[in-house]
Amino acid sequence: MKPMKKTTASQSAPARRSLGEGGFFNLRLLIGLFIVLAGVFLALAGLGTFSAVTANSAQAQQKPRIITNSTDPLVPNGFDCSKIYELGIDKQENLRAGLIMIACGETQGGSASPSGTFSQFIQKLLPPPLTFGTTDVDLISPQTDSGTNITQSETYATTNPDDPNQIVVAYNDSRGRLANPINISGASVSTDGGTTFTRLTKGNGQSPFDGTEGDPVVLYNRPTGTWFTVWLDTGCSAAGLGGYKSTNPSDPNSWTHFCVHNNNNIFAPDDRESGWADNNPSSLFFGRMYVSWNNFNVGGGALFVRYSTDNGLTWTNERQLSTTFFRDVQITGDLATGDVYVAAMNEGPNGGLAGPRSNKIYRSTDGGNTWTNTYTGPNFAPPGRVNCGANTYFVCMYPDSNLGFTGYWRHMGWGEPAALNGVVSLVYAQHGAGADPGDVFYIRSTDKGQTFGAPVKLNTDTTTRLQW
């Protein structure tokens, strides 16, 4: 029996040398490629930064004070740009406010990032993100958009309590950005419990919501089986709140117009509305519907509520909750008691990361007739990493100088209230401990919003990753 043959150093050396040379060559190639790509990236980023700085400098030197050459229907000629902060335009969320800020040179409009191609290349090298839940359902069906106005955002969904298969989702929809009248609102309807949705489109290629400027709310009035969408509405004295209603939401031609509130000051409009409908047959206020909003024509954004006692036929009952600006976060109600709550936020004198923030709760126990500020929470530091370069009143979750301005993904810490059987809950975001830029917190009241317990942090990680 022959002994097992041993591999000698001389026999194995060529193989090792071949592998070593190949590995070293590949490593050198990868390092060289990385250096080249990094150089290209830095050059592009530098070019983008230089261009942005140059543009901003020119913008600062040539900043117009009176708009005289606007062709945009949302940016009227004759507007005095020095009135932006006096009118609270920097605090408003509506599209018109953003476009006025751009036209006045107070912020920079969107543009393609010079490093976008490189970023896409890097993203392809990274592992795919985690996927949660089942397959996403496309609301924009059929998809017929083309050109530049193809963006949808900010959804609001409501289910029919008597037919859970019927769901209406409203959203901002830019396809009617240049329509006459303007129409940047849209909705999709499901009749199979959300498995599929059909986008509402009339024969002219637009949604049923002519003259509206987005910011969606969807309410269902149970006594009459009527759906209500509420928007920023030019048909309600140019800058008010209104919308369209229908008993057959799948038919785009069935929606008819109504107004909640009239406001004729397009520079100090109604803004950031929310809504709630009391659909409990046992409630003393069954069928009553409520809409809250910030009215920038009063007190620089005072908080208001209007409610309808005749199933949305009229909206004449108006109540002013504050004399100055507190952000309308969300209105909600207790289906067991019929009490109504408005969650609001004090964003501090100038917003931004300086804050401070504090939560506020307003409550009505008589169907919206009278309101009490039952709770003002302690001050807390706002979540976020940087003040948004596009508008420093708002805070951005992520910094990115390659966009031509600082920061993206705007958020102020606004949360979501809920109420049932006298228990009121509020979830919101604030700055975490130390260098942690954001955590999600929960507070709970067991006495109808009068007092709240200590905040409980919902995210359990011990990192400095941002949650909101």
List keywords for this structure.
globular; disordered N terminus; four-stranded antiparallel beta sheet; 468 residues; 4 helices; 2 domains; Neuraminidase; alpha+beta
Percent of residues in helical segments? 10-25%
CATH arch. level architecture of the largest domain:
6 Propeller
Which parts are unreliable, with pLDDT below 50 for 5 consecutive residues or more?
Answer: 1-62, 114-119
Number of domains: 2
- The shape, in one word, is globular
The string of secondary-structure elements, in order, is HHHHEEEEEEEEEEEEEEEEEEEEEEE
Mean of all residue-level pLDDT scores: 85
As laid out across the biggest beta sheet, the strand order is: 1-2-3-4
Radius of gyration (CA) equals 27 Å
Structural class: alpha+beta
CATH class of the largest domain: Mainly Beta
Could you say what the CATH topology of the largest domain is called? Neuraminidase
Question: What is the structure about, briefly put?
Answer:
The chain is an alpha+beta fold and 468 residues long. The chain is built from 4 helices and 23 strands. A hairpin with a 6-residue loop joins β6 (226-233) and β7 (240-246).
